[in-house]
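Researcher: Go.
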Amino acid sequence: MISVYAVEDEFLQRLRTEGAEMADEPKLGNEFDLENNDRTSGVSRREFLKLAGIAGAAVGLGGGLGGVRCRRSLWQEETTTTTGEATTTSGAGTTATTAGGATTTAAGAETGREVKIGWVQPVTGTMAAHTVAGEYILELVNGALGDGIVLGDGKKHKISIIRKDSQSDSNRAGQVAGDLISNDKVDILVGDAGPDMIIPITTQGEALGVPTITDNCPWEAWFMARSGGKIETTYEWTYHLCWGSNEEILVNLPILEAIPTNKVVGGLWPNDADGQALRAYWPATLKAAGFTVLDAGAFDNATEDFTSVIGEFKKAGAEVLLGLTLPPTLATFTQQASQQGFKPKIAVIEKSTLFPAGIEALGPVGIGIAGNQWWHPTYPFKSALVGKTCQELADGFEAKLNRQWEQPIGIMVHLEVAVDTLKRAKNVDDKESILEALLATKIDDTVMGTIDFTLPVAPKTGRPHQNAIVTPLYGGQWQKGTKYPVELKVVTNAATPWLEIQSPVQPYMGA
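Model: Structure:
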């Protein structure tokens, strides 16, 4: 097997080039270079943004890209929740005031103001499957927060989580993020569910000077499209928790090599931030490992006819399928592939393989689809915030929703980090104080294990960039189940050696 990092230089070069192309989108008005606007200058960053007409504005971002960049050295919905008190619904979101749960506060602590966490999710629309676990997570977190907790200022504060629906639209994601900051006055912003959602969220957080924590998107797909491919760019207010290309190669390459094939790969990557990131490093990685790659070309996620693509794969004799699709796109492709007699021996597909319902809906062609996966009930972790192990969280999800557990339970990590940050912030009325606490974060007990912002920044580590923290990743395959029609089995663990392998890789069963 080749070194995971053998193609790093070419990968970064391609990300720079293609990321720059993708970042050529409408910006937040003028683009400001804040390289020299540090905290010791005569005009603070926040004052500068206000003077520029940015602060307080809820800005929609075309395509979710662009915005104010802070260049520094790399090395330096509407949804209603029930919590024990009446919830308050207005406009595009619902405020869930914590109540009814156990409190972690000491008796007699002075009462401070309500503190708010803003949460943007695609509750409706094409990406809604990513957020089914959201209500479950919110209920658990609210119960854990109870009627308030003592924060870093020594005062007891109620914590409200305001969750708003991006409707799976990148423009709206930016709008509701801006609304949470400017109108709801949130103290911390969190978000998840892919680059099209979190890029506009973090762009708003950076522009308006609010600590922002996101997850559920490979860090390069989030960062490189946002920065225009400039790996040296760093941001002050926005931080991301997710694995990257190094971990993806570690878990997927063994799957591709597990079954004897002719090593001809059909590449199925879309024309979006995720697809461009994958296209930047997989072809070179596979070539170095002895594979031949046929890239079908960047396709639109709404594509309904893959006849020509399938024809090219068949003509090339591809026995391996490697790609990334949305669930509806995968359903279209697999149905047409079956009809046209294309049956690869291995199928590794990202994004669509996250949800059991999506795999079950494919029928026989869904059995044996594999790919990198990012959360599993057998993770040996326990959340200090809600007091449950990963297995207990999965079991609770199944009991409450009467459906198989889903990986987005793991997105709770951004709320875990947000709450832990607030518990250490000396002054919740000062965003700089909250940011300082965030950058000092080191939590051992989350649904994703240890989250450590104190790690030095270095490539190929748990903190590959100033603004990114790596989380676990494993290789999973959907196999015939015992409790459910299909179940996700751990099949490779090169990036998570502490995780037990449950099954060897099996040939793809596509009809």
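Model: Residues 88-243+378-469 form a domain with the Rossmann fold fold (CATH 3.40.50.2300).
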